[in-house]
Amino acid sequence: AQSVAQPEDQVNVAEGNPLTVKCTYSVSGNPYLFWYVQYPNRGLQFLLKYITGDNLVKGSYGFEAEFNKSQTSFHLKKPSALVSDSALYFCAVRVNFGNEKLTFGTGTRLTIIP
Amino acid sequence: GAVVSQHPSRVICKSGTSVKIECRSLDFQATTMFWYRQFPKQSLMLMATSNEGSKATYEQGVEKDKFLINHASLTLSTLTVTSAHPEDSSFYICSAGDRGLVGTQYFGPGTRLTVL
Fold first, then answer.
1. Would an 8 Å CB–CB cutoff place B104 in contact with chain A?
2. Taking CB atoms and an 8 Å cutoff, what residues of chain A touch B7?
3. Which among B4, B43, B95 is the nearest to A106, CB-wise?
4. Number of A:B CB contacts under 8 A?
5. Any chain B CB within 8 A of the CB of A104?
6. Neighboring chain A residues of B105 at a CB cutoff of 8 Å
7. Which residues of B31-62 are buried (b: 16+ CB within 10 A; e: fewer)?
8. Which of A2, A35, A48, A68 has its CA at a distance of 20 to 30 angstroms from the CA of residue A54?
């Protein structure tokens, strides 16, 4: 079985400050890890993914995430937050073989304070 | 990037009627599409995996006769909510897997269903 934990329901960050949204995972085998963002009444937009290779992955809108195998984490980061980054963020995991089914975390609502 | 469309974006219907939601991959072929349901302020719940040319695989607890899925082509999957009731009101989201991009799923914009 695979699972994802996003320990923070809500994260508030002042505009211009760095932000981190936390994610830990559990899978049997090597993971494929994803971050998605959801704006109100919209579907999910793909931000970035880790498949293999460099542990630091860069994605859309200046976001990046670091894969840490020993800590089974894949935290999302951005050096300088924008008000427009305010949204709901989901971390997801799947194993790197077989079924393509993704398992999502419960989501973290990020609010950037002007 | 890969684009997935969903139609309609919003639908209101009377209890007992059926509603069909379409999901299309616009610029890639998707042998697999996924249907999710999202309750307010909650995560996505996978309802079923839709495979082109074969029967859909439903998650435990999802009524396959209630939520009919058809994946007739490599770019189109449909979800029909049959005999809808108010408790079926929800936000339904589809996604399509692009094998060429190592299993990344791209999501449609969602359909807000309200059953009166």
1. yes
2. none
3. B43
4. 54
5. yes
6. 34, 46, 100, 102
7. bbbbbbbbeeeebbbbbbbbebeeebbbeeeb
8. A2
Distance CA B99, CA A97 (A): 12
Distance, CA of B11 to chain centre: 14
Q: Which amino acid is at B110?
A: G
* Dihedral sign computed on CA atoms, order A53, B108, B25, A102: positive
Strand pairing category for A10-14 and A108-113: parallel
Contact B6 A43 (CB under 8 A): yes
What type of residue sits at position B114?
Answer: T
Smallest Cβ–Cβ distance between B104 and the set A43, A49, A105 belongs to: A49
What are the CB-based long-range contacts (under 8 Å, 24+) for B37-42? B37/B90, B37/B91, B37/B92, B37/B93, B38/B90, B38/B91, B38/B92, B38/B93, B38/B110, B39/B90, B39/B91, B42/A106, B42/A107
Tally the residues of chain B. Answer: 116
